[in-house]
Specification:
Blueprint lengths: L2 H23 L3 E7 L5 E8 L9 E3 L7 E2 L4 E9 L5 E9 L4 H14 L9
Antiparallel strand pairs: 1-2, 2-6, 3-5, 4-5, 5-6
């Protein structure tokens, strides 16, 4: 096994522990972590459900290479909304390995679970 792969596995394990600690501190914190067969991150989603208030959410995968986590071959995406003060509010984040239909299907299903099945007027 490559040294890099072991490093990725350890980081994935620590990231999972971090998400569990966040859930222990905040019952509104929601996360899903999907690992590959070699225990590296395939998909990750996390959000603080207490901030889920809006009717219209934007999701984006920035095209900037600096947001692509090259070391792990993951892309960072974010869910944002505008609060009643007109300020952007970060609702949740995602790491995905592949920008394919299955990855987005998994991600948006996680989003609906975090929102407890409530549908928004616009996305």
């Amino acid at each position: 096994m490559e040294v890099r792969n072991i490093f990725e596995q350890e980081n994935a394990k620590e990231f999972g522990k971090y998400l569990l600690r966040m859930k222990e501190k905040n019952q509104n914190f929601f996360f899903e972590l999907n690992l590959e067969g070699d225990h590296c991150i395939k998909h990750a989603f996390w959000a603080d459900a207490s901030f889920m208030f809006g009717e219209c959410t934007n999701f984006g995968l920035p095209r900037s290479r600096c947001v692509h986590l090259c070391r792990y071959n993951l892309v960072l995406g974010s869910f944002v909304d505008v609060n009643h003060h007109g300020q952007l509010t970060l609702l949740g984040c995602a790491l995905i390995k592949n920008e394919d239909i299955q990855s987005f299907k998994w991600l948006f299903e996680c989003w609906l679970v975090a929102w407890e099945g409530r549908h928004q007027k616009a996305f």
